[in-house]
């Protein structure tokens, strides 16, 4: 009997019985502890998300060379530096950083990337919702190589945003253009491009029936009258007219115009050489700046993806 009365099961049963007699919830203490911890971590995540939003909106990098909070004065990156700065004034973050290094803090690069992806998905979902409210839209598609020499496809959508008043009457129409992301290029052929574009529509729940315009550059796989991307899309959606990229077209016209004039070629060569003469010497650049009181920086002529070197 004595052994039973001192057992854990008996003591737990007595505790439950006493709480029941006093009309208390059996797990009141545990419930209070859980609520306190839940509220604390909600506050932590609110601060972490706000720091992430601030860095993302201002196009500021997150990562550093060494992202440990406990390894001296290393470059921890902007994310952790801001968290540390805020902890000086914010008791929630101060308590978080004072925890043992083995404790969870939701500050790791993995958590940073997860939050960035979640926020990006929310923004993308909102943009797609606005596009789907429009009766028609156009798609602009192009590819470019990234630093690792992999072709990335960019997707841009232009749509009509109908501004309504309180009586649901349309008062204005605003044309908006939004970037919806990069994807690894599936291939350079028109068939691959068609497949990737249709998959893009499917993944983002965009109505192919409301596509009214398609815009690309002048590459043969895009503009081909019979086998180009635009022709194959027209077969599936006759209302999706192809519009040649005006900026690309203008660039080619200017480039060809310059090519036929030796005087213009010599002029641009001279301007580039003049820039190089001053830019490659700190002393010469200082003299130039002092003599002409330059208010703006002089820039070199840098060829982009559309410009053919002169």
Topology:
Layout lengths: L1 H4 L2 H14 L6 H30 L20 H10 L3 H8 L10 H25 L3 E9 L5 E14 L5 E15 L5 H14 L7 E6 L3 H4 L5 H8 L4 E4 L1 H14 L2 H18 L2 H11 L18
Parallel strand pairs: 1-4, 4-5
Antiparallel strand pairs: 1-2, 2-3
**Total number of helices:** 12
Q: What order do the helices and strands follow?
A: HHHHHHEEEHEHHEHHH
The number of E-state strands comes to 5
Helix share bin? 40-55%
* CATH architecture descriptor text of the largest domain: 2-Layer Sandwich
Beta-strand residue percentage = 15-25%
- CATH topology of the largest domain, anyone? Nucleotidyltransferase, domain 5
Content-based structural category? alpha/beta
Tag the structure with descriptive keywords.
310 residues; alpha/beta; Nucleotidyltransferase, domain 5; 3 domains; 5-stranded mixed beta sheet; 12 helices; DUF4371; Zinc finger MYM-type protein 1-like; RNaseH-like_sf
Structure description:
It is a single chain. With 310 residues, the protein is α/β, with parallel strands linked by helices. It folds into three domains: 27-133, no CATH class; 137-244, Nucleotidyltransferase, domain 5 (2-Layer Sandwich), CATH 3.30.420; 258-310, no CATH class. Helices cover 52% and strands 15% of the residues. A five-stranded mixed beta sheet has the order 3-2-1-4-5. A hairpin with a 5-residue loop joins strand 2 (151-164) and strand 3. The longest helix is centred in the first third of the chain and has 30 residues, at 28-57. The chain is extended. The termini are far apart. Mean pLDDT is 83; it is low at 304-310. InterPro entries: DUF4371 (IPR025398), RNaseH-like_sf (IPR012337). Residues 24-228 form the DUF4371 domain. This is Zinc finger MYM-type protein 1-like. It holds the Pfam family DUF4371.
